[in-house]
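Why does residue order matter? Because the sequence determines the fold. Keep that principle in mind as you read this record.
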Amino acid sequence: MVAAVVLLGLVVSACGPLGTRRVAPESGAAARRATRDLAQAESTDLGCKNVVMSEDKRTTAPPEYLEFLTDAVAFQEPCWDRLVFSFAAVVGQAPPGYEVEYRKPPFVEGPNNSPVSTQGEAFLYVTFSPASQTDARDPSRPNQVYKGNLLLAMDAMHHVTMVRKLIDGDGTVMWLIGLDQKRPFTVDAVSDPPRVNLYIDK
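Structure:
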């Protein structure tokens, strides 16, 4: 009888508040740490580390049909300066082909090779093809599709000092981007609507 009472006391002691105090603080702290670590991982911006950039030329093959430039914007994001060029496709939703590379001044534009004023120490030259800012499929009524600025407004960019649209070439739309120094970059193109994103590393 005495042995049974002692055994019952041990069971109650292990399952009661004293036993709980020995286990709960450690497991509770571990759970809180795990929750905190998970929240931190979810809030961490991995884009800066996981996007591959370089100073090398980027290019894609042009599609078959002409694209019309409709919009262009430049803005700062935490990991990079971002430029977005939007287009309207004649057929389908494919973005235009592009070529983005560093070039050295002086720069000229138009049929008369007029000099282009620049601002910056390094320059990315962007060419889209086949592309135009004007829909001239009806020669009697050409339509100016791009109604934006030739010199884009910018706010607190990391490295971009100038974004200037050049005079269209023969089936090409060209932009000149000035930077305060040469920086790695990358480009991606998406559909629906067709647009091209240029990311310049912070």
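The first helix runs from residue 2 to 15.
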